[in-house]
Amino acid sequence: MEEECSFTRGRSWFRYRAAAIIVEDGCVLLAGNKSENYLYSVGGGVYVGEHAEEAVVREVFEETGIRFEIDRLAVIHENFWEGNGAYDKGLHCHEIALYFLMKPRGTRELDSDSVTRFGDRETMHWVPIDQLGEIKAFPTFLKEYFASGHEGIMHIVTDERRGG
Questions:
Q1: What is the pTM of this model?
Q2: For residues 72, 76, 81 and 87, what is the CA-based torsion angle, rounded to 10 degrees?
Q3: Alpha carbons 119 and 51: distance in angstroms, whole number
Q4: Whether residue 101 has pLDDT greater than 70
Q5: What is the secondary structure of the chain as a DSSP string?
Q6: Which CATH class is domain 6-159?
Q7: How confident is the model over 104-162, as pLDDT tens digits?
Q8: Structural domain boundaries of the chain?
């Protein structure tokens, strides 16, 4: 098994992640599972020695069953939060994620058979972009990203720590 670029020190957790922004017919693809009460971007940890581009293509394939192609790097995201989910409860979390815009395929058909690293089955959800504000989804910047016109590479810092 490959080793992710992440570590835990006491109650602090750091992770390097590659994620995808996949859009078809005005909908963005998000994932979910039974242990969490929110949806999240498709992607995952970058392995030690792996390029982020390789990681996002691998992760998207693992989660969707489809080999999407990268269009371009879209967002560098620095994310801070206090963990309260099934997998990060009680941890001070810090994540650096590279978000890649993937090329549209002209279909929302997927062949997903994905499970989380903790064994939960993942489900894929095509969420209309204009409804992102109505659901609990991470990263929280997606609604603003789509409203911005998203030209070039954006650097976004999200600090959801209490008092952050």
A1: 0.91
A2: 40
A3: 25
A4: yes
A5: -PPBSEEEETTEEEEEEEEEE-EETTEEEEEEETT-SSEEESEEEPBTT--HHHHHHHHHHHHHSS-PPEEEEEEEEEEEEE--STTTTT-EEEEEEEEEEEPP-S--------B-TTSPBEEEEEEEGGGGGGS-EESTTHHHHHHTT--S-EEEEEE-STT-
A6: alpha beta
A7: 999 999 988 777 766 778 999 999 999 999 999 999 999 889 988 878 999 999 998 86
A8: 6-159
Under 8 Å between Cβ of 44 and 17: yes
pLDDT at 92 over 80: yes
Spatial contact of 70 and 100, defined as CB atoms under 8 Å apart = yes
Rounded (5°) CA angle 90-34-105? 110
